[in-house]
Write a structure and sequence with these properties.
This protein is α+β, with helices and mostly antiparallel strands. It has a single domain, classed as 2-Layer Sandwich (Alpha-D-Glucose-1,6-Bisphosphate, Chain A, domain 4). It is 45% helix and 29% strand. It is built from five helices and six strands. Strands 1, 2, 3, 4, 5 and 6 form a six-stranded antiparallel sheet that branches. Strand 5 and strand 6 form a beta hairpin. The radius of gyration is 19 Å and the shape is elongated.
Length: 168
């Protein structure tokens, strides 16, 4: 009986350690363009959907850099965000009714642009920032739906940029 309990404890403990070491999913593409051209294209794609560019000096931008572990000495970053609609906020609070309600939420998108030989490695990170109970809550986009959205969006951005270069 004692061996069985020790064995079960070891399995449970290893599962907890494994989950603690997991990193959020990374969505990357190598795009044959300069970081400046990628930023311009990204802005042209996201601004019509209600996103705005976040200054590098805002508390949110600094928080995003820390939360996503972005080293601004090695890469340039385009941080953009979009305010949640009242419907999105209401739906979130309804689905998470056991938690304190949130307000002033934003979808936060960071494109980390690392120049490489004749191309740029682009990493997309997605998160949500909300005000709740006098403090700020930041969640990263880790579910399957978010990862799929990031993969599709980044692939479409790459096709748009590289397609424009092929026409010239």
């Amino acid at each position: 009986m004692r061996r069985l309990l020790i064995g079960m404890a070891a399995v449970l403990f290893s599962g907890v350690i494994g989950a603690a070491n997991e990193k959020p999913p990374v969505v990357q593409e190598v795009i044959h363009a300069t970081p400046e051209n990628i930023k311009k294209a990204a802005v042209s794609v996201f601004v019509p959907d209600g996103y705005t560019i976040d200054s590098d000096k805002t508390a949110l931008a600094m928080f995003v850099s820390q939360a996503f572990r972005i080293d601004s000495n090695k890469a340039s970053v385009l941080r953009i965000s979009r305010q949640w609609s009242s419907e999105e906020t209401s739906n979130f609070n309804t689905e998470h009714w056991t938690n304190k309600p949130v307000s002033n939420c934003r979808h936060v998108l960071a494109l980390v642009l690392s120049p490489a030989d004749q191309a740029t490695n682009v990493t997309m990170r997605l998160g949500t920032e909300c005000h709740t109970d006098g403090s700020w809550l930041f969640r990263t986009g880790e579910n399957e739906k978010d990862v799929h959205w990031m993969q599709t969006t980044l692939s479409n951005l790459k096709a748009k940029i590289e397609g424009a270069y092929q026409r010239h």
